[in-house]
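Support case: user asked for a sample of complex input and structure output to validate their parser. Sending the pair below.
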Amino acid sequence: MRTLFTLACAAALFQGVSQAEDLVVRAGTIHPCGGGEVLTGGAAIWIQDGKIKAIGKDVQAPLGTPELDYGSGAVIAPGLVSTQSGYGTGVDPARAAAPFVLASDNFNPYFEYHSALRAGVTTAFLEPGAGDRLIAGQGAVIKLAGEEPQERLIVSSTGIVGSIAGNARFSPGFWEPRLPATVDMGLGFENRQFPRTVMGAVIALRELIELAQGNGDFAEEYGTPAGEALAELIRKNAVWRLRAETDEEVAALVELFGTSAMPLVIEGLELAPDSAALLAQANHRVIFTVTRPSLENFGKDPDTERPRYDVAAKLAKAGVPFAIQGWSPTSLRFAAGLAMRGGLDANTALEAITSRAAEALGVGDRVGSLRVGRDGDLVVYNGDPLNAGSSVLATLVNGDVVYDAEAVAQKLRLHQAKQGGMPEAALASSTVIPSVTVLSVQELHVGDGEVLRPGELLIQNGEITEVAQRVSRPAGAKVVQGYAAMPGAIDVFGFLGMEGANPRYSKSFEMARMVEPGDSVDRLVALAGTTTVNMTAPGRPLQTTTMVYKPAEDHIDHMIVRDRGALLVNWPSGATAQLLHKEKEYSADWAKYYKELAAWKANPPKEDASKDEEKDDDEEKADEEDDDKKKKKKKNKDKPAAIEATGSYEALVTLGGEEGQKLRLRLLESEGGALEGTLRMADYPHLVLLTGQREEYSIRLDGMTSQGGVALALDQEFVENDVEKPFLKGRRLFKGIEDTFELPRTSPEYPVAKRPIPTEDDDEDDDEPKGKPKPPSNDVLLDMLVNSRKGEASVFVFVDREDHIRSCVDAFARAKIKPVLVFADDAHEVIDHIRGKVAGVVLSGSPVVSSHRGLTVTNRFARLQNAGIPVAFASQAEEGAAGLIDVATMAAAEAWSPAGALRALTADAASMLSLSNHLGTLQTGRAGDVLLLDGPPLTPSTSIVHVWVNGEPVSR
Amino acid sequence: MAQQKQAIKAGTVITMTGEPIENGVILMDGTRITAVGKADEVEIPWDAEVTEAPNMVAMPGFVEAHSTDGTDRTNETIDVAPFFDVQDSINPVDFFFENCLRYGVTTVNIQQGNNTVVAAMGAVVKPFGHTVDLQMVYPQSGIKMSISPKSGKSRATQAATLRQAFHDLRAHLEELVEEKKVGNDRARREALAQGRDYEGEDAKGRAMTGKGWIVEGLETVPRVEIDEKMAPLLKVVEGKMRVFMYCGSPAEVHTAIEIAKENGFLETMTFVLGSGCHKAADAIAAAKVPVILSSNLVHIETDPLTEEETRTFEAQVFQDKGVTFALTSNNSGLESLWYQAALAVGQGLSREDALAAVTTVPAQLLGLSDRVGALKPGADANVVLYDGDPLSMRSQVQHVFIDGQQVYDRANDPRLKHLLEGEQPKGTQADPDGAREESAEDEGSEDEDESKKDD
């Protein structure tokens, strides 16, 4: 739902398209404001025709009503109301009193208020001028989005707006207008006859009121229109919104309006720390202005007043209801945070920028609080609205999403991808953008034994970027709350990804060739907490390598963690001993080569350019010849000769009587026509490994599934006898049903997942200059030994008896390699001997052994781990890997601890696979493989709520 | 003086009243056109002087609906100055007028610049004649107003000043009526002191008309007693004076319509628009106000995220909404009306509509439909002869007739001869650097700068 919506919204976002339909918005917490009780633990708002229809923990909207669920960590609050904006042009009228100037004329309905909407502000006050006039004009209230532009002006006149504060008193224009050069008056000059004192300003206001009432003869000073416009406003009982900054000014206003019936809103008070008591009696509305923090000098006079932030707290203590305004709409939340100095509580602060602010503008019955019948203006935050670290996920006005952080990010990323040259086709399929997720939990189990209580985790671009008790919440970050979080569990020896009990494949068939995202069992295992598997096949011959991969990863290029994870050997074994011996020579050869290479590089011989050119020419000729051959082949109308079958074949075919079923075949042909590959069939949920043979055009393949064997008999054909367009025609026999189909070749390549950690020999140049030392030939197995010493691979040794363990550890110690002892069930008996010499121990069964006929129990893992030896769990199973955490939980219950077992599942397992820098702990820079739990980890009653792999949630 | 009777025989005659006529004849008698038709249908009088132009295209001269060129200063510092008349500011030898002929413009409505609140009364002139009187087609063609803030003003104070101007007028009229009631003759004395004639039609009182508001009892006040600084605005309120209202941004359109409604000049108002005002096209269409488009025919907006440009051809938007629009060159020298029309055709407007937007439509906006903008009997004898399609980059204006008088002949254009052939104009001295030409162009651009506003 969320993704679907986002896509739809991305298009509409900048066009202000109004979609007047029902909508239900859900989040963990809702602050209704305006005196409403905070709803926690999941609540919703139903908006109909732009108005709130229902709000509560149990909202009953009709079936099929679109829903936006922002998750348990999200907080909904009313759209913020800014009692100032600066959205007018900000020029004051020439005269001191210009009540006829209308702020509504300043309104630009065609402006897009992106930054304010992004900050969660949905309603704002529009000033008639810059604010430095006794009476600057009449204010207005606008909504920043949501309706037809002209209808956003929701109050065209809020009444009189003015100021008796310092700047207004010192601005030219009081009493006498600035005279422009006119034909009538000749060259004018500024008359500086304005009151400098508060007294003077109050007298001026009195005179104006008298003028309006027809009692005074001040028309000359203030201009005739002022009196008329003011009289009209006073007759309508318009609100006076006057700015007063200091205690003196506040007191003067209270005095002036004390006996009159004219409603007054006092704005400012930044220098008025002692007015709270006076205002408590006076019953005027108050807007407290939070001054922008700045580095401006303020004078060396010790008596100089500095703007105060604690005035709001004092007002609250004295029981004065007030609104808070900042220096710009976007600063509103930060300003409210500053106003909390001096002890103002968060709830009052939030109301001061929502419901109280709306009341101060006279629009409290429409916006500022979330109640049935009010406008559907709300903001979804990814945390506490008043926490400076939280940001806005979405802003809604009249029930329309007018800002959506995810949609903006999506649009920007798509644009950047396009700029970066990503082809259209790829763009179309990459609808998923990397999530930004914050996990907020009571217990954050890092994996290495450390626990943060509470703890938070920020995952960006698939990686953990912040771990702390409180982390930042970047724009668009989705916050998920839960009880506990731990790293995804690692199965150090499993078969997940294999299909069939004993797949037949050659030693040379690399496992990287068969992983593919989207398997339902893979997801099932991940959802049970096992996010990484060190994979091999049951019965796989020794002296081969395993592959570490993340089965539930959605993107093929991110599935493989290390394509050669561990070397599998056994002990005692002559082959293993020989391998260790060979490795010595091998390392020596390489060391020699590097030495020579360094010497050669330090003194490079001059290159013979002409020879290179010759070589190029030869190549060109060869190319031309090739081209000729190809052309000839194309011209030939007979069926061309059979070609190598390597490649991908894909089509929608009819399987088991059902049309449009996807079938994908990937084949790799080796010498003599031997075929290996994989088959993905729409009518079977798993990948099937195939082996077979090609003889001329005829291809025979078969594989094993849990539902019996599958056999393919295919013939190579060519479209229009074009050797470039081969396809396979034939039939499949599966579950006793025969299907016939044609499979066109979609690619001549066998697609292989990218390997994230490149091996050294990848970057070798083909064109070796003469005289350059030649490197010794590579040996995969020996490389594994070398790499394990560097901590870039592991060596798994199958060994069980005590004496064998001793001799094994000694032999590897001589080679300076720390092996992982696999299925070393007696390792706990030789702890002193193996300590410091092994990378870890894996057992073949439960670590718990009972002795003395059940009277005592020993936990072998506990003993090993306490001795500083890493231990880890291995499933030795396919889908059975889903039970890994439960098995560990059971092991932890007997003579061990959940903390120890958690370490065995995560940090210890990662270190055993030499992948500590990538996996196994919740630390900065590690992959975002996280489990969210509803209770303490490795406790029988705890279940897994959510799983992330590389920062992306795993869906069921 | 113009020939008594003339005939122009042209290969093609674009009349703007119907389909173009192949092998057409335009008959002119004095300053007026007497007949337009096919060569075999129109009889050429024996005594008419005939101009043979078989390879040329004849067209009515273009009509510039609004221009601030041709004056010595385009803007006035006084906010409200409806009593000024742009005639007093027109410079008949301005380079602008000379260029108008080169580009086939034969009628120009000259108005004050946009940096104003209520500006002077404009004048419709022809770009030929050594005095303003000789140039004059139609004096006091309308008052220029602006709803976009004059420099130093905000939208709010601009609107307040504009409203105030009408408020002041009303207060003044009410005061006059009141004074009449009590028998005070201050107004009479003031009028006499200002040297105003106290005779004729204005010596009588006349009841006020107007759709916005009226002051009862104004018939008791002789019109001449009304302050002459206010009088033109009274004409506006009474619907007797056109208003050219400048709107720099769509936000201001709504305020302008509101003020026009309040004061009863909605029907006599024409918008002079800045770029981007098509966003308010619905409001303009609803108010049925014709518009003069900005010379930026294409409005460009950039997406805040991707910086992708969205281009809107504004004329199309207005046409789709049924708004009458004229094109204008907005003083941009070379991009004269032919260029604007050609650009509009390039953007997808039909040829007929584009040509109308620089001939018949502006003529209609100026109330001069019967005189300019089309070749028809009774109209002013303003004919332009092109050596090809008037909207083609390669065509040149060869001859221009204004009021039946040939006022331009490309073959004898002294400036072109000087520029292209190096021939020294008669009565001038050789200038080795060609500085004369440059300074003339500078003047042009200077005026342009002044009329542009920082919005």
